[in-house]
Amino acid sequence: MSRKAVNCALLCGGALICAAIPYSAYAQSEPAASQSDIIVTAQRRAEPLENVPMSVVALGSEAIEKAGVVSVRDIGQIAAGVQINQAGAATQPAIRGVSTVLNTFGYENNVAIYVDGFYQPDFITINADLANIAGVQVLKGPQGTLYGRNATGGAILINTLAPSATFTGKVQATYGSFNERSVSAYISGPISDKIRFGVAGYWRKNDNYIKLLKPIPAGPQNPSKFAPIEQQSVRAKLEADLTDNLTATVGFNYGLVSDPRGYIFTPIAHSNPATIIPGLIPSTQRYRKAYNYGINPDAKTYEGTLKLEWKTDIGTLTSYTAYGLRKVNQDFDIDGSYVDAQYAINRQRSDSFQQTFDYLIDAVDHLTVIAGASYYKDHSRVVPPISTSVYGPGLVRTVLLSTGIKSDAMAFYVDGTLDLSDTLSLTAGARYSVEKKTYTLEGLQGLVVPRTSRSASFAKVTPRASLRWELAPRTNIYASYSKGFRSGTINQGTSILSIMPVRQEIIDAYEIGFKTVQGPFRFNLAGFYYDYKDLQVSLTRNICVDAACNNFVVFGLVSNAPKAEIYGLDGEVSFNPTSRLTIRAAGAYLHARYKDFTNATGTALNPTTDRNFTEVQDWSGQQLPRAPSFSGNIGADYTLDLLGGRLDLSANVNYTDSFVIQNPSLFGSMMGALANKQRYRQRGYTLVNAQVTWTDPSDHFYVGVYGRNLTDKYYQMLYNGNAGVGDYSTPAPPREFGAKVGYKF
Question: For the CA atoms of 99, 103, 107, 112, what is the dihedral angle to 10 degrees?
């Protein structure tokens, strides 16, 4: 472990030691604030956090805002053991080292994301800012029984504000670095005594901290500036009491994410000689990139939802129905230079439908049961007439492919908790899932590819069981076993021979944990072991269309890594020494390694030519992507009186040890002592966020300032390479400052 990791471990350990010091050791001018109940829905029912026999990080809207968390990607800064990274334009969560590097429609994340109880298959527009948020829950470990398909690593539950029976609202505007402007607004209230509404809108745009490198010499259609980053969203809900026992909530959600950073392929090392960029010095021009013909990264989501809750004599029956339409434009310069070499255009559309029924039965003493069924259907495909196209010099099209993948999934599940005594409870359940995938391909890639279709079906039973013992009021220990899976799929290859089934992922997880809430202290600790099989991995290939490989097509194949082993320890503590001060800390140690993966395909380096090439590598014993050995955070919030109002001070420090962002490749067989070292690693780094907010005496008007990445730490959000372009990366945001002003009622 690096020295910085050790220091951070000591820092977090110090916080735990402080938590163990008796409260009387503190000189207090005010009484301590007792920890209030945190209610979570990790088991599809509302219950106190400390009674849930699994590891859950629960974040309220206030905690999210004070920690400087802005988007889904920032959640990992305050949830130890969680990484939210990116591959291309795809947002890809990792929990305890379980993640995916597949970023094509039809390859869904293996950390499931739900918004207001509805599954979110979209991995692009989910990268939205956290506006109108009531809270976030991060469920660690496989959730195969209750949250089902594609929850191998866990689930992230995002809840937005529900319509209010009284009028409430908020409007806020911010301005910050890189000409960042944002406006958000929310209003909710009654239409009648039985009908309520809530509407939220959000808009953000900035000029991007990544700038265009001045072309030397100028290339064809050089854009005048780098593409801006923009987000838009509208979320509307209408809630009605149809009867005394039946409530309906109708929702409409619109989202736009236009973020070009995932489409940057400017080479920084080991470049193809045909695409070397004169004037680019990677070590000093880290935030300078190049491209031709422009980047079009727009992704839009339109979603309609209906939730029905019917209270019966024995429990509550809930129905979730949703239809989603998602459209994605992907126009980008493959070679990332001003050379007129390779350009790609892609238009994709996805239509999805989901229906879930949950019946929570709680009329029997000492027994709570939830039984349910779900159906999910999705059709993702490219949209003609452009489809998926690759262009060579002069925008001469060299590849034209029409592809599509259909998913039909159904599941039945039951889960229950039985109180064996006043202090001992047993939870057990199981889920049966079945899914069919169909992939279709036709087009032109050198040779004519006739219309070809392949189908495969997958089925799995995923049980879970846990035992919880209440040692004292609000103090529990538990032991659990759970099985999770990620659905199998069809390899979306570009030739008939490469279209083949990919086995489903399976994970067996064992966990023991301790949770307690005592006065001003809250402490959670968990140890875990995962037996992880048939990991779905991406194997990159390059097809050269000339002898020197100056013109090429990059594509990926999906295969299964036989096995991985994951184990570790994570925990968190919060402490309220006074009603004005909250101190929180969390840390995670993680060992996540491939086992018996001798036929991986990696991007190696030839020291003679200084070019990348593809070779078969042995990744056995190598670290999984997005699985740092240590991560941790510590933060504090303090409130004081000022000018008749309230001044809130908050700060959060997050440390992440060195890790592979997305490509576990080794330097390779020609690199001597470096042969078995992973190439594309991000060094350990620390991020510091802080903000100050003053609220007027009426508790309506507020102003504030904030800073993110205050130490201006350079780190990368993308880091990869291939045999065609070379190595390329996208830097994460540098230091940012901003101010906000708002009004709430």
Answer: 40
Nearest to 291 by CA among 398, 211, 228: 211
> Worst-scoring range by mean pLDDT, 173-177, 282-286, 591-595, 622-626?
282-286
Which residue is listed with tokens 């056995």? 620
> What pLDDT, on a 0 to 100 scale, did the predictor assign at position 27?
38
What angle (nearest 5°) sits at the alpha carbon of residue 232, between those of residues 59 and 153? Answer: 40
Look up residue 623 and give its DSSP letter: B
- Could you give phi then psi for residue 340, rounded to 5 degrees? -80, 85
The answer on pLDDT for 130 being more than 90 is no
pLDDT at 446: 64
Measured CA to CA, the distance from residue 34 to residue 561 in angstroms comes to: 48
Q: At 283, phi and psi to the nearest 5?
A: -70, -25
**pLDDT per position as a tens digit, 637-671:** 999 999 999 999 999 999 999 999 989 999 999 99
CB-based contacts of 77: which residues, under 8 Å, 6+ apart?
67, 68, 69, 633, 652, 654, 687, 689
DSSP-H helix ranges across 350-435: none
Q: Where are the beta strands (DSSP E) in 487-625?
A: 489-490, 501-502, 505-518, 521-544, 552-578, 581-595, 600-606, 611-617
User: What is the C-alpha to C-alpha distance for residues 680 and 255, in angstroms, rounded to an integer?
Assistant: 32
Check residue 287 and report its DSSP letter. Answer: T
Tell me the three state secondary structure of residue 106: coil
Tens digits of residue pLDDT in 417-445: 999 999 999 999 999 999 999 999 888 76
Instruction: Give me the number of domains the chain comprises.
Output: 1
CA pair distance 719, 87, nearest whole angstrom: 9
**Cα(438)–Cα(441) distance, integer angstroms:** 10
646 touches 637 (CB < 8 A): no
Torsion angle in degrees (nearest 10) through CA of 388, 393, 396, 397: -20
C-alpha to C-alpha distance for 146 and 474, rounded to whole angstroms: 24
Burial category of 348 from C-beta neighbours within 10 Å (exposed 0-12, middle 13-18, buried 19 and up)? buried
The first and second tokens of residue 486, run together, are 């990620």
Dump strand ranges (E) for 312-342.
315-333
End-to-end CA gap in the chain:
49
Look up the CATH number of the domain holding residue 548: 2.40.170.20
Q: Decide: helix, strand or coil at residue 262.
A: helix
Q: Which residues of 527-564 are buried (b: 16+ CB within 10 A; e: fewer)?
A: bbebbbbbbbbbbbbbbebeeebbbbbbbbbbbbbebb
Q: Is the N-terminal amide bond of 190 cis, ω within 30° of 0? A: no
DSSP secondary structure letter of residue 628: -
Query: How confident is residue 386, by pLDDT bands cut at 50, 70 and 90?
Result: low
**Domain limits at 102?**
3-744
